[in-house]
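Record type: monomer structure entry
Structure origin: computed from sequence
Chain ID: A
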Amino acid sequence: MTTIKVAPLAEDLAFGARVTGVTRDALDDENVRAQLREALDQRGVLVCREVEQTSDMQVKLSTVFGPLKEHPVYAVDRADRDKLPGVIVIATGPGSCIVEIDGKPLVTWQPWHFDHAYNNEMMYAAVLRSIKTPKDGGRTAFTDGIQILNDMDPALRAKAEQLNVLYNLDLRYDRQRFGLPENFRLVKEHDHTLSQENENGRCAVHPAVWTRPDGEKVFHMCPYGCRGLEGDRSDAAFEQLAEIWNEAQRVMKVYYHEWQPGDMVVWDNTRVLHEATGSNPEEPREIHRTTIKGDLCHGWWEDEARAETVA
């Protein structure tokens, strides 16, 4: 009988687990697969160590949690469009965006966010695998929406529970109305037109707080790609969003993943926010990410009635 070991990432974190023993044979065992699904549901982030570093192994691990979901943006690079649907490539290149935070230039930096916010159907979960890991930087940060909501000031938590937030694919930092680091400077914008094309594009709506099937409530909003509130894009709406976000940042507890050979990291995108902390622009960085479909991917288009099934 194959076995895996699941242990907490850290004593001071209420989320996250470290998993060992993830092999091909283990993933063929339905008991192991069920254990992994339960661990993700309970802990939100799984750091799997010493895993075979191949694309098909990444897909095999991913499909434990659900079928792969094709990425909604065709222009995003795929590992193999024909053989590996749902596996995208995130890599540095000549068109990479460069920012500066506290005087340090960084490439592949992305602020706190959840994936597919700009789409009515988010992905449920994802698996990350580092192909090229820079020596300087390149960490991936995770924070738990359950912990954030539980620790927020009750008055602000009550406000957050009433908000439905707008997002679209205009991801330019100079259009981001709140949530950028204090000492932030845009050095070089992304070399593509996707954001410009979506400046006035269709917005998806996602609740800032939603309720899981087990009754737990989750804080689930971010500044990245945020276009205001449903029915309200005024300055006052952004002031309200900034107030809620500042409180979330005040209380959030963060796990910073330092990539090691053999790592694959799984996270629940309906619960966990993540951040790419950036790396030295002189070093290459490449990540492969799967996109996993699920039943808890709440959201709706701004111009459509809210679905009855949304919690």
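Annotation 1: The two ends are 39 Å apart (CA to CA).
Annotation 2: The chain has seven helices and 19 strands.
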